[in-house]
Amino acid sequence: MSHILETLNLVKRFGGLVAVNGVCIRVKRNSLTLLIGPNGAGKTTFVNVCTGVLRPDGGKVFFNPSGRRLDITGWPPHRVYRSGFVRTFQIPQPFLALTVLENVLVALGGRGEGPIVAPLRHLWTGEEEERVRRAFEILRRVGLEDHWDWEAYRLGAGQLKMLEVARALATGAKLIALDEPVGGTDPAYAHEIFKQIRGLAKSLDVTFLVIEHRIDIALPFADYVYVMDRGSVISEGTPDAVASDPKVIKVYIGE
Ligand SMILES: Nc1ncnc2c1ncn2[C@@H]1O[C@H](COP(=O)(O)OP(=O)(O)O)[C@@H](O)[C@H]1O
Ligand SMILES: [Mg+2]
Description:
By secondary structure, this protein is α/β, with parallel strands linked by helices. The chain has eight helices and eleven strands. It folds into two domains: 1-91 and 173-255, P-loop containing nucleotide triphosphate hydrolases (Rossmann fold), CATH 3.40.50; 94-170, no CATH class. The chain has helices at 43-50, 77-83, 100-108, 126-141, 157-170, 187-203, 239-243, 246-254, and strands at 3-14, 17-23, 26-28, 32-36, 58-63, 70-71, 85-87, 175-179, 207-212, 224-229, 232-237. It has a six-stranded mixed beta sheet, sandwiched between helices. α3 packs parallel to α5 (157-170) and α4 (126-141) packs across α5 (157-170). The structure holds adenosine-5'-diphosphate and magnesium ion (MG).
């Protein structure tokens, strides 16, 4: 099956407010799929329901990480996470005092290590050496290889975001949901991050579902776009198709 995620008529209510109102989306494997819409459209709620952070009031969520479709509707967040669908905020935040490499090693896990990383020299043996090799491979993919020995607090906002992605990759995630990954950053910076994320989707066995409220920032990098407004999908298609859809233009002009 070419779709890694599919939702059917997903519904989430908060009291009388229908925050997610019968949303159907399909995310193609190895794509960068973008979910845009103005503030309050229901984007974050949608992802929260998909990843188990919130329980749906109706509908279905299907996740297909590796050729077998799982009905993950209503699964608790840790179970969704373990199945390979990761929302970056579910991963503990980077440890700012640890190095970039150490942060990825923590996410790679290992026996009984927990958040406390043994001094590096103890890592350079056998199985540990393999983990370090994998961590470096991931850092190379996200463009942080040259910063492996930097403490995370020295990284810029964009690099920190890529470290989050690196750590999601290290958990073995097959689908990574990023909620406004470039929030507040300037467009040039944001474009660089989206370019890298798109590159990862094309070169690794991973798919990205990216949420963004601004229409101009991520559109050129998306394979497919869903536009939400007031709980519903109002448009979907290629970036060009949604950008020229009068319904989308109306929503964004209204903002
Ligand atoms: N925990 C909550 N309790 C009540 N209302 C909520 C809650 N979370 C979100 N909402 C409301 O649901 C709607 C959708 O919010 P949200 O999913 O955060 O939108 P978006 O991420 O697109 O900006 C908004 O009207 C918001 O106020
Ligand atoms: Mg949001």
